[in-house]
From TrEMBL:
Organismal lineage: Eukaryota, Metazoa, Ecdysozoa, Nematoda, Chromadorea
Source species of the chain: Panagrolaimus superbus
Source domain of life: Eukaryota
Family: Belongs to the FMO family.
A molecular function GO annotation: flavin adenine dinucleotide binding
Pfam families per record: FMO-like
Cofactor(s) needed by this chain: FAD
EC number(s) given by UniProt: 1.-.-.-
Broadest EC class assigned to this enzyme: oxidoreductase
Keywords attached to this entry: FAD, Flavoprotein, Monooxygenase, NADP, Oxidoreductase
Protein name as it appears in the record: Flavin-containing monooxygenase
Length: 288
C-alpha cells in the first residue's frame, strides 16, 4: 500500500522555486538539513516523524496543514501502546453500546488534556473518530509547545525563494519543501490492473480479500488479496486471519456467500465508511 508516493498537482510557480522539492518517502535521516528552513506539507504520521527528526538540526521547521488533526501520544498515561489499549474488551463493548457522539466527546477531552489543540491552531473540522489516528512521536508535542515547529496554513503557491499560504502569508528563504502526502496504490501487477480497478486509492473486496465478480467467472474463487487493509491495531494478526480464511475457502472448509450477498455486504460497508469517516484517500481500506 506504500509503493507510489502521492502528491498534489503542480502548484503555481513551482518550477520557478529555487529550493528543493521532495517527498517524505525519500527522507531517510536529518543529515544534510543543518541550519535549513524546511516546510512540510501534510499532517499525518510521516509529517510528524519528519518534523521530529528535523527539529534538532534545522534552522526552522514549518508544518503546513489543510484541516489540522487530533494528535494521539504513542502511549497512554499508563505507558500502554494506544492500539493495544483501544482494542481491549472494554473498548469493544464501549463501541457497541455507547453513542458515537459521546465517545467523540470523551476522546477529544482525553487528547486535549495531553495537548491543547486550540492554542496550537490544529483543531480539525471533523470529530475525533471521523479520521484515522495520527500519532505524535515522543517529543513532538514538546517541540510544538516550544515553537520549534510552527503550524501554518495550507500551501497555495510557490515563489522563487519561498512559499505563499492560503491566508496570504509568505514564508521566504525556504530551502526545501517536503510533501508528506501519502501514497497511491493500484493492482497493476494483476492483469495490468484490468481485473481490479483502483480509483483514488479506492476499491472494494469482500472481507478485503475476494473480488465478488470472480464467483460468476469461475467455479471456484481461488484468487485473493491478502494484507491490503488498514486495521485499527496490529497489522499482522489481521493478515494471519485473512490467510486462514482464504485457505479454509480453498480447502472447502468454509464457503463464500453468493455474489449478490457479497456485493450487498460491500455496499453496506461503503455506506458505513462514508457516514463515519472524512472522505479522503487516507480512509479507503480501513477495517472498522
Amino acid at each position: 500500500m506504500h509503493s507510489k508516493p502521492a502528491r498534489p498537482f503542480e502548484y503555481r510557480m513551482e518550477t520557478a522555486f529555487q529550493g528543493r522539492i521532495s517527498h517524505s518517502s525519500n527522507f531517510k535521516s536529518s543529515d544534510g538539513y543543518k541550519d535549513k528552513i524546511i516546510l512540510l506539507v501534510g499532517f499525518g504520521n510521516s509529517a510528524i516523524q519528519c518534523a521530529s527528526d528535523l527539529v534538532p538540526v534545522a534552522k526552522k521547521v514549518y508544518l503546513s496543514t489543510r484541516r489540522g488533526s487530533w494528535l494521539l501520544p504513542t502511549t497512554t498515561t499508563t505507558n500502554d501502546p494506544w492500539d493495544i489499549s483501544h482494542n481491549s474488551r472494554i473498548h469493544y463493548f464501549g463501541r457497541k453500546f455507547i453513542p458515537k457522539y459521546f465517545r467523540n466527546w470523551l476522546w477529544e477531552i482525553c487528547v486535549n488534556e495531553r495537548f491543547d489543540h486550540v492554542s496550537a491552531g490544529i483543531v480539525p473540522d471533523h470529530r475525533f473518530l471521523a479520521a484515522n489516528y495520527t500519532f505524535s512521536k515522543n517529543g513532538f508535542l514538546d517541540h510544538l509547545n516550544a515553537k520549534r515547529i510552527e503550524i501554518v496554513q495550507n500551501l497555495l503557491s510557490f515563489t522563487e525563494t519561498g512559499v505563499e499560504l492560503v491566508d496570504k502569508r509568505v514564508i521566504e528563504h525556504v530551502d526545501e519543501v517536503i510533501f508528506c502526502t501519502g501514497y497511491s496504490f493500484d493492482l497493476s501487477i494483476v492483469e495490468e490492473g484490468k481485473l481490479i480497478f483502483v480509483r483514488e486509492n479506492d476499491f472494494h473486496l469482500y472481507k478485503h480479500i475476494y473480488l465478488p465478480e470472480l464467483n460468476e467467472m469461475a467455479p471456484h474463487n481461488n484468487f485473493g488479496v491478502i494484507g491490503h487493509i488498514q486495521p485499527k491495531g496490529g497489522f499482522f494478526p489481521v493478515v494471519e486471519m485473512q490467510s486462514r480464511f482464504f485457505f479454509d475457502v480453498l480447502s472447502e472448509k468454509a464457503e463464500l456467500k453468493s455474489t449478490f450477498l457479497m456485493k450487498a455486504s460491500l455496499e453496506k460497508k461503503r455506506c458505513q465508511m462514508s457516514l463515519e469517516y472524512v472522505k479522503t484517500r487516507r480512509h479507503t481500506q480501513i477495517r472498522c
